[in-house]
Amino acid sequence: MLRFAMLSAALLLPTVAWAQSCSFGVSAMNFGLVDTLSGSSSNSTAALSVNCTGLTLQRILVCPNLGTGTGGATASARQMLSGANHLDYQLYSDSARSAVWGSYAWPYPPMAPAFALTLNAFGSGSSSQTIYGAVLGGQAMTAVPATYLSTFSGSHVEFRYRYSLLNDCSTSAGSVDRPTFTINATVPANCLLAIQNIDFGSNGILGANVDATGEVSVRCTPGTPYTVSLNGGTSGSPPTSRKMSKGAETVTYGLYKDVARSQPWGDASTPGSTVAGSGDGAAHDLTVYGRVPPQTTPSAGVYTDTVVVTVTY
């Protein structure tokens, strides 16, 4: 008679919960040289990268919260600082720079832009996003020449991530990583010139003074000292005896700093004849007073000269 018995074996192992783990990196955002006198914005970008591990084929929601940075912020702009001076800029999640990149934890309405990645069959995944930046226009009268900086680290950066099928970045849920990056820009000293020509009009006999005016408009960055000089024209003549010409014939004229035509306006070759000032971001209109003195009248025709205006700063 045969007898059979069954032997069974069992092993109980603890359940392993594969928590997600993500690491982030953000490149520096460098605006380079920013021309505040142009009135337009200056753009730059930074690259955000993320690498995650966890449960295979699971979706990880990423909420990259960005606060004010060390430069601080107002309701309308973040700021970079240079000592007590500030330069306004903003961060965006779109290339059109219309959607501000914010945080659930800061006092302004925009939140962080949600994005997600799905882990592969090996439980890993990566993604990248672009952070778009713009130094705002309209700062010609406030941004002094300097190098400006804002640093994002610690409480200013709160990149939260968690398993989720939703796109809700309005909460503090999830694990946190805090990468560090910087945003910087340099405002150089700069000046712009605009010119209004001098037209002495149509004249007959040059037996009396013929007066006319032109204008040099100077606009320089705040605190920038400048000097405006006028060269001797095509003939290279002194300030009060420049020459307008028609072929070999000439008409003598002078350029002055004052309405009485007593202060010649020239260049460094004539000491004391230039005009100095200091920029404040606004345009300053300088009148150029011209005079054709009495002289022997040459033949009829159009007489011209070209004077180079130079602003040194």
TrEMBL record:
SMART domains: SCPU
Phylogenetic classification of the source organism: Bacteria, Pseudomonadati, Pseudomonadota, Alphaproteobacteria, Hyphomicrobiales
Endpoints of the signal sequence: 1-19
Name of the protein in its database record: Spore coat protein u
Top-rank taxon: Bacteria
Keyword terms: Capsid protein, Signal, Virion
Source organism (scientific name): Mesorhizobium kowhaii
InterPro entries tied to this protein: Spore_coat_component, Spore_coat_U/FanG
Domain Spore coat protein U/FanG: residue ranges: 15-151, 180-310
